[in-house]
Amino acid sequence: MDCSPNVLTARLRCRDGKRVKLVPFEMERWQSTWENTVDFNLSESGVQPIPLRELLGDEAATERFLDHPLAYSQGNGTPELRAKIAAMYRDASPGHVLVTNGSSEANLLAMWHLVERGDEVVVMLPNYMENWGLAQMFGGNVKPLRLQESRSWQFDPDELSSLVTPKTKAIAICNPNNPTGAVMGDAQRKAVLDAARDRVHGCSPMKCTSVRSAKGRGPRAYGASMNER
Predict the structure, then answer these.
(1) Of residues 151, 165, 222, the one with CA closest to residue 190
(2) Cβ-Cβ contacts under 8 Å for 33 (sequence gap 6 or more)
(3) Helix or strand (DSSP H, E) at 54
(4) Per CATH, domain 101-229 is 3.40.640.10
(5) Is the pLDDT of residue 228 over 60?
(6) How far is it, in rounded angstroms, from Cα 15 to Cα 122?
(7) Is the pLDDT of residue 22 over 90?
(8) Per-domain residue ranges of the chain
């Protein structure tokens, strides 16, 4: 068996000499089967898509877009795009930015980078369940952080504190939450940052970042990366 670390499929199959167990993404399978064949979709979590013409903004930009050749783009994002994204954040450069084809690819790369066999990932529930499966696929153990209806779909900050250990490599949150729509309260946001910054020892300094929601509208979503390798 080829276990070269430079081959994605080999890395998936050969971590610690064990094959990876793929965790079925039941919701995504169900959605992919039915979402484009029904007359009324009551389970969609996104917003009304913006037309490309509105996104581009003016006729000159539209013409430039239509004249762009359909060729392979730069794999990590063009320098111009990465520079514009980096400009949104203090002390960031284009070298800090990796552009992906949507958040699903970003989640895959993040979990692949962070999680080894025996590591722990705290996952807010309910949630979009991709990270739940990815953490297990890479040999990690998932520790659920449950939102409570009695708290208006907030989690208990003390519970998060108890879940984070020296083995924790990520705290996966969704803000505003999918599917409840609840926005994390100030106490919950602080708890995430405190857990990442103070409760885990023996790894590199915590990185806590705030990420704008789509097109900069609405609350920021806070994430915490627990380790660098």
Answers:
(1) 222
(2) none
(3) helix 52-56
(4) yes
(5) no
(6) 21
(7) no
(8) 53-99, 101-229
